Automatic annotation (TrEMBL):
MF GO annotations: nucleic acid binding
Any single Pfam family the record assigns to this protein: DDE_3
Name by which UniProt lists this protein: Transposable element Tc3 transposase
Annotated Tc1-like transposase DDE domain residues: 42-94
Organism expressing this protein natively: Trichonephila clavipes (Golden silk orbweaver)
Superkingdom to which the source organism belongs: Eukaryota
Length: 116
């Protein structure tokens, strides 16, 4: 968006629930993108359970962020699924694939930064 991208956000251990999604993604990232784009901003997510919680819905409504209607399980239509595929292929092609969580985190960050 806007010819750029955010840093890769990697959740620390634990489940991603509606509260974490709001606090770690919607509030710090999505709200700022909406502010940069203006009222024509249309938000797209992938219908994951944490995206559909009451907390997420209330936060989006309170920030006047319109959510795109999206068919469940539509990876071919969701551009981010192609990004995850690209990152997965890049990790698999490494001479020394990551073995630990720390190595995986660093490798993902490296590949994300190197992505065109």
């Amino acid at each position: 968006m806007l010819g750029s991208r955010t840093d890769l956000h990697i959740f620390d251990a634990g489940s991603v629930n509606g509260t974490r999604y709001c606090n770690e993604i919607l509030f710090p990232y999505v709200r700022l993108f909406r502010d940069a784009m203006g009222l024509q901003f249309l938000f797209m997510d992938d219908n994951a359970p944490c995206h559909r919680t009451v907390a997420a819905k209330q936060l989006l409504e309170s920030e006047d962020i319109e959510r795109m209607d999206w068919p469940a399980r539509s990876p071919d239509l969701n551009p981010i699924e192609h990004v995850w595929d690209f990152l997965g292929r890049r990790l698999a092609a490494r001479t020394l694939p990551p073995v630990t969580i720390r190595e995986l985190r660093l490798a993902l960050q490296d590949e994300w930064a190197a992505m065109p």
